[in-house]
Amino acid sequence: MSTKYIFVTGGVMSGVGKGVAAASIAKIIQSSGFDVTAIKIDPYVNVDAGTMSPTEHGEVFVLDDGMECDQDMGNYERFLNTSLSSANYMTTGSVYLSVINKERRMEYGGKQVEVVPRIPMEIIERINNAAKKEKAQIVITEIGGTVGEYENLLFLEAIRLLKLKQPKDVCVILVSYVPALGAGGTELKTKPTQHAVRNLNSVGIQPDIILGRASVPLDQKRKEKIQFMCGLEAGDVISAPNVESIYEVAINFEKDNISSRIFKKLALKPKKRDLKEWKAFTDKIKHPKGEVKIGIVGKYFGSGDFILTDSYISVLESVKHAAYFWNQKPVIEWLDSDVYEKNPAKLKELSSFDGIVIPGGFGNRGVEGKIKAIQYCRENKIPFFGLCLGLQLSVIEFARNVVGLKDATSREFEKNCKNAVIDVMPEQKVLLEERHYGGTMRLGAYDCQVQEGAISHKAYKDWVDGAVGPYTISERHRHRYEVNNDYRDELVKNGLVVAGINVKKDLVEIIELQGHPFFVGVQFHPEFKSRPLKPHPLFKEFVRVAVKNKK
Ligand code: GLN
Q1: What is the pTM of this model?
Q2: Residue 482 CA: which ligand 1 atom is closest?
Q3: What domains sit in the chain, N to C, each tagged with a CATH number?
């Protein structure tokens, strides 16, 4: 069969879950026995998401090949239970960059290079490359932003051109917001959606299917109204109400037969879909046998939970996957590290949690409070899991309070410090001095050898069936600083367990403590590899111990 293309665009406003909708559609298509892959397009000029602050754009997700991309790529990987590559992500900046590089190499044969059609053609070529690389029969591409914006026009033009050439191979889905007004919030308004469709029409595109995102399900009358006013066929308006868990979205879409509508548009014979395992998983979420209370200590960004949730989405999902696995309802709370710095008496509240996570981060704001929180978890035997910066701060805490190096710190926080137990790698130092910030950290997948006898060794058995002795796993990285090997012997002598190492470069990857129920720090980001049906082994073990030690 020829490659089939599904495009997901957004109407009315952003932030209504277009990424989750695209990932859920991908899941349904995958469960119908097709080979699918998913692409995310971000219309900004940044070449990738690496140089953007998480408070601006949410979490920076990292792929195996080191691509720093949008958090929606995380949804794709989680929903499809797969690993994607940089071929599945593009931005306006990256598209222009490759067209400009081609021009410099004379690849356009001396012709004038015009924005149209060159940019849309480059976009189509990239979509086809991703399909080829992933051996996909169907490619789902989400276009960031909202129709009517200047920014995504060239991506919409790519859709128009593709559909013009292969009308039976392209299905355009508009995810549109349907506001609910009135006292009870039940009066659904379709007018904004009608305007969004006109916007799409004005660039030569007619949507095939509309997903009506609303706080409540769309009633039949509203569906018919949208269908009639926007020129759709009967059955092509799908209800997308709010749900408690994002994993329910796919099940909901299928209640309105979204897959058979898509297959019809793409002239595909539908295959039997099988969402049984997915359904069982969502049922498990709804019927927990207990709850586990996990605190995440972060720096407070000043605008509340929403920003934190968006910045640490993969960490949150990983905790949830592990909690669901153990039939627990995850109760996750954000804890502001600044508070512990100013008022150490507040640290006591950590005792009311079953486990504490310190996630990744950059810069020195809030680190002293986090170090205090780590000390509290270490001394009071509260299950503790440190991720990337979380490992680095655990090493600093250990060096200060166990080894006795009172001024131990990281080069990141104090350039001229005396005891940089966390230091910058020589190659990273050069990059920093030359201000090469984009895409230059230690990024993507690296091997880690896990040492026998460690907590992690037991946990990772999930991944390395029946291995004995030290074995190798692979995890994703995104950092510039490392444990300074000059201090390693001293740390180990005092009881720090180096449970995982990068053998090639002799770098510390995992640290643990003995005589503590669970004290593990990792230099990588395990949260990028957790899947709903396959929780990450370390998160799984962390939550297991947290549940066992419940207060
Ligand atoms: N800021 C630290 C570093 O660059 C940690 C980064 C992180 O947590 N991702 O090494």
Answers
A1: 0.94
A2: 10
A3: 4-281 (3.40.50.300), 288-550 (3.40.50.880)
